[in-house]
Amino acid sequence: MGAIALRNVEKTYGHGPKAVMVIHGVNAEIPDGEFIVIVGPSGCGKSTLLRMVAGLEEITGGEIDIGGRVVNRLEPAERDIAMVFQNYALYPHMSVYDNMAYGLKIAKVPKAEIEARVQKAAKILELGGLLDRKPRQLSGGQRQRVAMGRAIVRQPQVFLFDEPLSNLDAKLRAATRLEIRKLHAELGVTSLFVTHDQVEAMTLAQRMIVMNAGRIEQMGTPEQVYGQPASTFVAGFIGSPPMNLLHGRADGPRFAVDGAADALSLPAAAPRTGALTLGVRPEHAELRADGEWPLKVDVLEMLGAERLVYGHLGGSAFTLRLEATLAPPRPGETVHLHVPPEHLHWFDSASGQRVT
Predict the structure, then answer these.
(1) For helices 170-187 and 111-124, what crossing angle results, to 10°?
(2) Residue 18: which CATH number?
(3) 351 CB contacts (<8 Å, ≥6 apart)?
C-alpha cells in the first residue's frame, strides 16, 4: 500500500539566528493510488517537499509516513519509491534496455524477471523498437519515457515526478502528459508530481496541493481549486488569465472599487460590510447592454477560439474572455458587464482568505 501521510513536516536551513525555515508544518493525507500534483511558483518549496519524501533532503521536524511506516530515518533506497527527474538522468553509454534494467541488476533481481519487467514497461511506453539505442539517439520525449520506464520496472509503492516535462517543447509536453495519465490509469501507483505549470496541474491531478512560501494554501480537486479558491493567492495563481481581483469596500448591494468615483451595483449583497476583495473569473463576466459594470477597453488579444479584452473597471485592471465568434468591442470604447451572483468570489482584504 502506497498511502502517504505528511504530519507537521518542517524544513529549516542553517542554525541559530541565521536559520531559515522553508517548509512550515505541512500536513497532508494521500490515499493509496491517488495522483497528487504539487503546484506553485518558483521558490515556494514544492521540490524541497518532494525531495524530503524521497529522502534526498533531511527533514527538520514532523513525520513522513509511506505505506504505514515512518521513513524519516530511512535512506532513499529503503523507502520503496521511484523518482523521475527533470533532466532524465540517463547513462549516456548505456542502451535504453540497460538504463531501464540497471537498478534491478544492482538489486540482484534474477535475469528472467528483469527481462519481463523491462519488456512490460517498454510495451506500456511504446519503447519496444528503441531498446538497443543510446540516449543520444532519442528525442527529448523518448528520453523522458525511458526515465519513466526505469521508474516503472522498480515496481515501487510511490512514483515521484520532479518537473519531468520542463525540458520538452509545448507539443511534446501535451503528448507526454497523456502518456503519464495513461500510465497512472494502468498502474494505479500513488504519485506525487511537482510542477510550476498550472495547465499540467489541472490536467493531471486527481487532487492538487497549491503551495505558497512553504505552506499549503489549498488542497482539493482541480474543480474545487479553480471554482472555490481558498485565498487571493490561489485565485491569482490558478487560471490563465488569472481571476480579476478588485479591492474596495462593500456596503450591501454596492461595492466601491478603490480609485473609482462610482460604486458598482452588485447582483447580490456582499457577505459583509467593509473592506473586501471581489474576485471574478474573466470568462464569467458577460457583455450586456444593460450590464451594471462599465469597462473601459484598452487592448484586445486574438487567441484563435477566444479573444481577451483588457480594460479598466474603475481604478482597477480587468480582463474579459470572449468567444471569438462574438463581435469584439473596440479599444477606447466603454462596454457594460454583468456577472451572475454565483460567480462572485469574496476575500478578506487583510488576510486574503476566502469569505463565505
Answers:
(1) 130
(2) 3.40.50.300
(3) 231
Rounded CA-CA distance 285/339 in Å is 5
- Read off the pTM: 0.90
Tally Cβ neighbours within 10 Å of residue 141: 18
Q: Which residues lie below 8 Å from residue 123, measured CB to CB, with a gap of 6+?
A: none
For cell 539517439, the residue is 137
Give the angle 109-111-117 at the CA atoms, nearest 5°: 75
Query: Can you tell me the distance from the alpha carbon of 73 to that of 60, in angstroms, rounded to the nearest whole number?
Result: 11
Side chain identity at residue 216, one-letter code: I
Query: 156 and 35, same structural domain?
Result: yes
Q: How many CA atoms lie within 13 A of 83 on its CB side?
A: 18
What distance in Å separates the CA atoms of residue 65 and residue 72, rounded to the nearest whole number? Answer: 8
Of 233, 257, 288, which marks where a domain is finished?
Answer: 233
Cβ–Cβ < 8 Å for 52, 71: no
pLDDT bin (cut points 50, 70, 90) of residue 214 is very high
Q: Which three cell numbers stand for residue 265?
A: 451595483
**Rounded distance between C-alpha atoms, residue 104 and residue 197, angstroms:** 33
The answer to whether 149 touches 122, Cβ cutoff 8 Å, is yes
Q: Is residue 39 within 8 Å of residue 195, measured between CB atoms?
A: yes
Q: Percent of the chain scored above 90 by pLDDT?
A: 72
Are 194 and 294 part of one and the same domain? no
- Residue 283: which residues within 8 A CB-CB, separation 6 or more? 321
Q: Is the pLDDT of residue 261 over 80?
A: no
Number of Cα atoms under 13 Å in the Cβ half of residue 209: 27
| Segment 52-94, tens digit of pLDDT | 999 999 999 999 999 999 999 999 989 999 998 888 889 999 9
Give me the helices (H) in 55-169, please: 96-106, 111-124, 140-153
> Dihedrals φ, ψ of 6, to 5°?
-110, 120
Q: Are strands 158-162 and 81-84 parallel, antiparallel or unpaired?
A: parallel
Backbone φ and ψ for 335, nearest 5 degrees, come out as -115, 170
Q: 129 lies in which domain range?
A: 4-233
